[in-house]
Amino acid sequence: MADLDDPPLPWSTRLWFAFACFFRVLFDAQFAARAWRARAAAALPPAERGAPEPAEREREGGAPRLPGAAEVAKKEPAPQAAPAPQAAPAPQAAPTMTSALQLLALLQREGRLVDFLEQDIASFGDADVGVAARMVHEGCRKALRGHAKLAPVRREDEGARVTLEAGYSPAEVKLIGNVSGSAPYRGVLRHRGWRAEEISLPTPVAGHDASVIAPAEVEL
Q: Which residues neighbour 133 within 8 Å (Cβ) at sequence distance 6 or greater?
């Protein structure tokens, strides 16, 4: 695969890219669908990823066998009465979308994350950005640790040499650098990864609009 030959990204670039992808997936449904398909394809073993479709196998092996009359009659479904029309259900936010919006609202409430990301900091000095980043980090860390239990995917220290045996999970470990051959792979752990072991979000009350990340504030 071409992306396996790309050089590893620095930590600062990965942090910015993670935030960018988070909000793109959150608010762009088509981009989220493409990212989900790419994630599912990456998790498949190489044999399944490259398996030809039945139509392609027929083209490679010659003309397909024509079914007999008995087989055609067996495959034809019996006619059924048309179902009665039903009223369309009221549109509701998907549970995964609601959970993502809840987490974003918590990060905003505790750490003003959205305010920080939406602020134009190009004219700010490095010292001012550092002070603001420290406050955002403290609040967001409090919100994350209060509602999620995270654990590293790999237990080794970053920089340690590791061996990936055959059958490792591509969803848990991403190969970077000069990748060739087949497992076992031996390399250096650049990032331990993160796994969500437990998520505990508040239960929305009736009438709650999850799309409102933070309400407007009016002082009287």
A: 116
Total domains in the fold of the chain: 1
Q: Is residue 161 part of a domain?
A: no
64 falls within a domain? no
- Residue 147 inside a domain? The answer is yes
Specify the pTM: 0.54
State the pLDDT at residue 204: 83
Domain extent, residue 126, equals 95-151
What is the average pLDDT across 17-28? 69
Token readout for 215 is 């309400």
pLDDT tens column, 52-103:
555 554 454 544 455 555 554 555 555 566 566 665 554 454 567 888 899 9
Question: Is residue 156 within 8 Å of residue 195, measured between CB atoms?
Answer: no
State the Cα–Cα distance between residues 186 and 164, nearest whole angstrom: 6
Confidence check: pLDDT of 2 > 50:
no
Is 137 part of any domain? yes
Closest CA to 183 of 169, 165, 171: 165
54 DSSP 8-state letter: H
Q: What is the DSSP string of 190-219?
A: S----EEEEE--PPPPTT--TT-SS-----
Eight-state DSSP code of residue 123: T
How many whole angstroms separate alpha carbon 137 and alpha carbon 32?
26
Q: How far apart are CA 43 and CA 141, in angstroms?
A: 30
Q: Is 190 left (phi over 0), alpha (psi -120 to 50) or beta?
A: alpha
Q: What was the pLDDT predicted at 36?
A: 74
